[in-house]
Amino acid sequence: MIVHLVDGTYELFRHFYGLRRFTSGDRPLGAVSGVLHTLLQMLEQGASHLGVATDHVIESFRNGLWPGYKTSDGIDPALRAQFEPLEAAAQALGITVWPMVELEADDALASAAYLAGGDPKVEKVCIWTPDKDLAQCVRGERIVQMDRRSGTLRDAAGVRAKFGVEPQHIPDYLALVGDSADGYPGLPGVGPRTAARLINQYGRLEEFPAAVLGAQRERALLFKQLATLREDAPLFADPESLRWVGPRGEFTAWAERLGEARLLSRALTLETRGRPA
Prior knowledge:
The chain is an alpha/beta fold. The protein is built from twelve helices and six strands. Strands 3-2-1-4-5-6 form a six-stranded mixed sheet, sandwiched between helices. The mean pLDDT is about 95.
């Protein structure tokens, strides 16, 4: 089986800002509809095992580690109001959803990739997000990152080509260069090329000679802690539980609420196609 793991928070932002599938008046849940259509498209194109991770609460344990870490401040209220409806509507569609509170959606994706990747029944794991911190989860050609923004598949070779380091060193890399999306700056004067050179020369930050980072060592290790995704969320015991078998009964009401009859017809057509003759 191939397991597809979707960054629901990114998809919601993508449809809200990039594809503009909403208005503040007559389509207050337009971005939700857009994400559901994307999920149905994945199913129509052959995806069978699918999980979606969302940031039910934007803040996480990392906010207690670094005061500048990303928060819900500044999120458009019209977008924020669609987080919970997306979770409920996707679940009604029959999709497995992981709404994260103490951890982040990225931690759920990392945990799901770890769990699925450790199962011999799984041929490949595809993580659908452009977030560079998820590159740390890539393993060879078996666990890959699908960047919908650029339309590229990134395996281990792709990670090396883009960042100059092995996937397992992405937390070290981000600790040095920073991640503006997550709200930590990295170390002054250290750019991508310098970071890659140092990591390839010395390995993990913990193995750097003391003189290399000097007084910035503790801050770098803190940033690495922020960049390191958790893989211990107990999301499922068997990846077979991620198999899509059709919409639930309440999806009819969701399609009506969203004003999207086509959502229901697409889901029912897929369900019928999946039934044995």
